């Protein structure tokens, strides 16, 4: 049995072409799509699309962008601990491939 704290954030996901660029330096996270869809993009890779009730694991330190092709999309981000805050990035701080 394990005991500890996790961090939870709820995001209202912007509709494309708007994106949120972020990284968690010290925490893994899982995205759970509550409503709508989630498009997650890693630098230099094709976007990953998730629909309502789907989940995706992201290891710590991975810079990524989130957006949606729908309005009113909402996701739950579950962090592995409370050791890092969500670090929001400007587009100029990430690879131009995003």
What's the number of structural domains?
1
How would you describe the shape?
Answer: globular
- CATH homologous superfamily caption: Jelly Rolls
As an assembly, this protein is single chain
Sheet of most strands: 5 strands, antiparallel
Question: What is the CATH architecture term?
Answer: Sandwich
Q: Give the termini separation.
A: 40 Å
What is the number of E strands? 9
Order of helices and strands: EEEEEEEEE
**Radius of gyration, whole Å:** 13 Å
Q: Which spans of ≥5 residues are poorly predicted at pLDDT below 50?
A: none
In terms of DSSP E residues, the strand content is: over 45%
CATH fold-type name: Jelly Rolls
Class of secondary structure makeup:
mainly beta
Secondary structure: helix percent: under 10%
Describe the strand arrangement of the main beta sheet, using strand numbers: 5-4-7-2-9
Mean pLDDT: 92
Number of helices: 0
**CATH class group:** Mainly Beta
Write the layout of secondary structure elements.
Layout: E1 7-13, E2 20-23, E3 29-35, E4 37-41, E5 48-51, E6 55-58, E7 64-67, E8 73-79, E9 87-89
Antiparallel strand pairs: 1-8, 2-7, 2-9, 3-6, 3-8, 4-5, 4-7
């Amino acid at each position: 049995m394990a005991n500890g704290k996790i961090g939870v954030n709820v995001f209202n996901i912007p509709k494309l072409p708007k994106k949120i660029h972020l990284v968690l330096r010290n925490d893994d996270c899982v995205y759970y799509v509550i409503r709508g869809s989630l498009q997650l993009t890693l630098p230099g890779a094709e976007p990953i699309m998730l629909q309502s009730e789907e989940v995706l694991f992201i290891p710590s330190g991975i810079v990524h962008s989130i957006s949606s092709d729908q309005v009113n999309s909402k996701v739950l981000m579950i962090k592995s601990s409370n050791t890092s805050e969500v670090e929001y990035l400007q587009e100029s701080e990430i690879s131009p491939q995003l």
